[in-house]
Specification:
By secondary structure, this protein is an all-beta fold. It contains no helices and 4 strands. Helix content is 0%, strand content 24%. A 4-stranded antiparallel β-sheet has the order 1-4-2-3, with no helix packed on it. Strand 2 and strand 3 form a beta hairpin. The radius of gyration is 11 Å and the shape is globular. The site of zinc ion has 8 residues, from loops.
């Protein structure tokens, strides 16, 4: 697995993510763990991961520019 992909449930900082399997875009504005993709299906989602579009996987910096 590439390093810019994080599995479901990972603790991440705020940022934009896309489903590694179907490309669904998800904007995580509160710092918490990532949910499963809303379109999750075991057959079509073998990676069970989110691709990081912006922000850092598990760093506490890089505040979200449009936080307010
Ligand atoms: Zn998906």
């Amino acid at each position: 697995m590439k390093k810019d992909e994080v599995p479901y449930g990972s603790d991440v900082s705020a940022g934009s993510y896309a489903c590694a399997d179907c490309g669904y875009k998800y904007s995580n504005q509160s710092k918490k763990s990532l949910p499963p993709c809303p379109a999750f299906d075991a057959n079509s989602h073998p990676k069970r991961a989110w691709k990081i579009l912006s922000g850092r996987g598990d760093a506490a910096q890089d505040p979200y520019p449009n936080g307010r």
